[in-house]
Design brief:
Radius of gyration: 22 Å
Strand content: under 5%
Largest sheet: none
Oligomer: single chain
Distance between the termini: 35 Å
Helix content: over 70%
Shape: globular
Length: about 450
């Protein structure tokens, strides 16, 4: 008997649709991160402030977008479990894209004074709310469409979108930062933000025909009068905390994408276009290597691969920052690519399946969104700012920022070691193993048609 089309898995289509959306999300992040390190500190804040203070304020606006993400996760996560993964993927797509485009239209401090940074912060907050459900919905969509023995491989394409977005944005920024200073500060920085509209259109064309995964469709056939968010918080709070701590490893990547560029170009006056080639090459390696690491996670385990990546990325930050202080370009490129392109990509490939498989189907988007966004908010908001503060007024001290990066990686790696391995389980077995008897009883009692709700 042929299975209905609506209940068939479409792993290739789901993977491509999720990859394109994450590419947009990280295109936005990388464009904004690059601009906040090189441009916004000059054009959006009072020129009479010290250079280090303006840079810290600029990086703080980057952090604001992360601080509101947990709130967005509490809203968008349950929507993904109730109305569908596709619903949230389309909603966040337009929210992220519109905000990125609007940032490119903003007047500067010279034009409207203090209103310039205020408007920048407001748009970043709206954007942060939009981003908070994108990745959780995309990962869940891909995971639930995946072949059983390739779940880590297929979901790794979601996070490889971060490499694609970073590569695309930085590559686009390079010719503009090479412009004369006056042209860069007046109009050059705006173009990469406006180009986000192209990515939005491409992503929408791909996503609009995507079908919900069979697991979600089947779950919707049973009406349960208990919200996914309540179920996740009541029965899976331990997994949410674990994921939040594991997600702190993202702080190492944020330091690489923002602080290290500012550290090199502001503190040590290294050539800006040349410095931007470091994340470009790291992203090129990540684009190719992330799916390979995903395959490895299917073979030897999600937990093992994640922990190796978290520890490795943190430890290699130390020699990378030292190489910048020496102005040694071969070392800067080698260590930068090793830190972010290899080790961080190793963790980045494993965590989508590792984290998502900590939850049963009915609460997967809610739990994944809340856990990751709390961790991303903490690391994304504080890592560049603390690193900049530890670098001193002249942004030249490297030991403090390096130790901070190692601490982030240790927290993430140790938290990852407490997670259970699921590589040998089918997704149905994962769903079953993640529910306690108490949770099953509560869900059964809340199911419409059961004696408890009749």
């Amino acid at each position: 008997m042929t299975e209905p089309i609506a209940h068939k898995k479409t792993p290739a289509k789901a993977t491509i649709a999720s990859w394109v959306g994450t590419t947009l999300e990280y295109y936005d992040f990388a464009v904004y991160a690059t601009a906040s390190a090189l441009v916004f500190n000059i054009i959006f804040f009072p020129p009479e402030l010290p250079e280090g203070v303006r840079l810290m304020l600029s990086l703080a606006t980057l952090g604001v977008g992360y601080l509101v993400r947990p709130l967005g996760a509490f809203i968008l996560g349950p929507l993904g479990d109730k109305f569908g993964r596709k619903f949230v993927m389309l909603l966040t797509l337009f929210g992220i894209g519109a905000c990125t485009f609007l940032i490119g239209c903003l007047p500067t401090f010279h034009d409207i004074g203090i209103w310039a940074p205020i408007l920048l912060v407001v748009i970043r907050m709206i954007q942060g709310l939009s981003v908070s459900g994108e990745q959780a919905a995309a990962i869940t969509m891909t995971l639930e469409h995946s072949p059983e023995n390739r779940r880590s491989f297929t979901t790794s394409f979601v996070t490889s979108g971060s490499a694609a977005g970073g590569l695309l944005s930085t590559a686009i920024f390079i010719p503009f930062v090479a412009l004369p200073q006056e042209q860069l500060m007046s109009w050059g920085w705006r173009v990469p933000f406006w180009l986000s509209a192209v990515v939005v259109i491409v992503a929408y064309v791909i996503r609009r025909t995507l079908e919900e995964p069979p697991a979600f469709i089947e779950a919707q056939a049973v009406e349960v009068r208990m919200s996914p968010l309540k179920q996740a918080l009541q029965f899976h709070w331990g997994s949410i905390i674990r994921i939040a701590l594991c997600a702190m490893v993202a702080g190492v990547s944020y330091m690489f994408a923002t602080f290290s560029i500012a550290f090199a170009t502001t503190g040590y006056k290294l050539d800006r276009p040349t410095m931007l080639w470091v994340p470009v090459l790291a992203s090129l390696l990540a684009l190719v290597y992330t799916p390979v690491a995903g395959l490895l996670a299917d073979k030897i385990g999600r937990r093992t691969v994640f922990v190796i990546g978290a520890f490795g990325a943190a430890i290699t930050t130390l020699p990378y920052l030292w190489a910048i202080t020496q102005g040694n370009w071969p070392l800067i490129f080698t260590l930068g690519v090793l830190c972010n392109g290899f080790f961080y990509s190793t963790a980045n490939a494993a965590w989508p399946s590792f984290f998502a498989e900590m939850f049963p189907n009915r609460v997967r988007v809610s739990g994944l969104a809340v856990g990751t966004q709390i961790g991303f908010a903490l690391s994304g908001a504080i890592a560049p700012i603390i690193a900049t503060a530890l670098a001193g007024d002249k942004v030249t001290l490297w030991v403090g920022p390096a130790i901070f990066a190692i601490a982030l990686g240790l927290v993430a790696g140790v938290a990852g070691l407490t997670g259970k391995e699921t590589k040998d389980l089918t997704l149905d077995e994962v769903n079953e193993s993640r529910q306690t008897d108490r949770e099953r009883e509560a869900v059964a009692a809340a199911t419409v048609g059961s004696p408890a709700t009749a």
